[in-house]
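User: Hello! My lab partner asked me to get a predicted holo structure for this protein. The small molecule is zinc ion, SMILES included with the sequence. Please write out the structure tokens.
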Amino acid sequence: MEINVKKLLALKKYEGSFEFDYEPSADCCLIPLCRIDGPVKVAGKYVLYDDDSVGVTLTLNYSLSGQCSYCLEEAKKDISYTTEILYLTEEEDDNYIYDGVKIDLDPAVNDAILISQPNVLLCREGCKGIDVSNK
Ligand SMILES: [Zn+2]
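Assistant: Hello! Below are the structure tokens for the protein in complex with zinc ion.
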């Protein structure tokens, strides 16, 4: 998904919102034996500022499913994550850069998918793992 900044400026649409479905690549899921179920729902807002910087709020919603990291039972979790991004035309700190014309949102969406993932996927809160006590 792209934001065509030049076009929006010409149309004087300095603020707006967008929504799209993003198909993550398989390596977007870092948890072993798990996957991202279906598309990642992305919704967001943008603001075009006078100095050519663009503020973007991204909200991601998606489901993780697979095997519990502790006991290998089936597990599922819905993730919701919001991040604020500032796009600049010149490199500065950790901000994203764009060419002043178009913003490609895919790298930021990919980053947000990675950041929003838990380290483990559990079948339930407090799963103790496989019972090996052998009573
Ligand atoms: Zn479990």
